[in-house]
Predict the structure.
Amino acid sequence: GKSRWVDLSQREVVTTLLGDHILKASLDGVDPVPTGNADPGQVAWLSQTAGEDRWVAISLESASDRERLADIVGVDIADDSDADAQAAALRSATDRWAAQRTRETAAAELRGAGLNAAPVNSGEELLDDPYLKARKWWQPVSRPDGGTEHQRGYVVTFEQGGPDCMRRRAPHVGEHTE
C-alpha cells in the first residue's frame, strides 16, 4: 500500500540488452529494426547435447548453410518447398544428432563445416571464460566486509577516453532499503 522509491540504473539495463544494437547503430548510422529472436533469412536455435543442461547454439544464414547442416545431421530437406516444414525437419534431425555429442564436439563439428555454432556456457562457466577475462569483463570490486566480488564490466570499451574499470560495486538487492 505505501509508495516506494526504486533506483534502477538505466545504463545497466539498456546497454546489457541492447549493447550490440547501440554499437551497430553508432558504426553504420542506421537505427536497428526489432526482429525478435531472428534476423531475416536466418534460422537459429539451441539443441540439447549430451550431459545435463548442455546446449549448442546454431545459426544458419543461407540456404547453403541449411543444406550443409542437413548433410551433417542426415536429413533430406530438398523435397520440402515449405520453409517452415523444412526448418522443423532440420531442427528435429539436429536435435537427435546433437544429443549424441558433447556441446563442444557438436559446435566444433559444425564450425568445421563452416557453420555458425557455439557451446552455450552457464553463468558459472563464464566467470572462467578466457575471452571474457582477456577483455576484463569481470572486474573485482570491494565489498563492505573488506572482501571483493566480481561484477560485469562495460559492454563497449574504448581505445581512448572511456572508463577502464568499475569504480564501485552496485548495491546488493535490498541493501539500501530502509
The chain is about 35% helix and 15% strand. The mean pLDDT is 83. The helical segments are 10-28, 63-73, 83-98, 103-112, 123-126, 130-134. The longest helix spans residues 10-28.
